[in-house]
Amino acid sequence: MLGFARAVFYLNLGASLALLIRLGLCHLVRVYRWLTAYLLAYALAFLVTAPIPVRSKLYGNIYMLAEITNVILSILVVRELVGLTLASHPALAVFSRKTVAYTMGLAALIATGGVMLDSTVLPGKSRFMHRFVTAERTMDFTILIFLLFITAFMMWFPVKVRRNIMLYIVGFVVFYLSRTFGLLMINLLPLASLSAVNNVLACFSFCCLIGWLSSLRREGEDTTEVVGHRWNPAAIERLSGQLDAINATLVRFGRR
Predict the structure, then answer these.
(1) pLDDT of residue 255
(2) DSSP conformation class of 56
(3) Cα separation of 213 and 16, whole Å?
(4) Is the pLDDT of residue 16 over 90?
(5) CA angle 46, 49, 52 (to 5 degrees)
(6) Which helix (H) or strand (E) holds 173?
């Protein structure tokens, strides 16, 4: 199992570096700045922890620092996705980005209290790490909710979205869905299951990276799609009017 874990570890590192190169070659770094920053931090964490024993205190400290960094960058990724998705409705985009910031700030305050499902610390586990994973899961779950909200918004309203943005969102939904569930399992299952859960999470992460690597293209910036009600022209016209009205209301509100 140790050999498998090491193999998946390096596969994730290779895939993240390859994706960074792809973004650079396709001139997408400036378009998706926070995705690029997230991948850089992700790859750097792999490089730094590669020679360090997993059970060491140093590894644990670096892990916590890396995860805190990832959560912060993930919040910025969500804000970036909101702005890109609502680019044609700037007032609504600004309002939504502010909502993300305020909600994530509130989630950070209550993260340490998110212990309902895993309040019991199992024998052999660090109480501090248990609480840290719980807080991390609370933040990850909040990020997942926003990603699902963005997805539901695109499925309902006839918003023109670039193909790359859709792939960007889907990848993060899969990643955070698996990670939220995986962190819960880390706290609920015995210590002997930790390696298996980490391997599963690493496999999901690798699949997301490969999905992005194989699908994000420069031409994906020129292809736009409307998902919401595209089969119903009458509904598209009605919902577009509602969306324009919401944006106009927010514009007037912002001028007061």
Answers:
(1) 62
(2) S
(3) 9
(4) yes
(5) 150
(6) helix 163-188
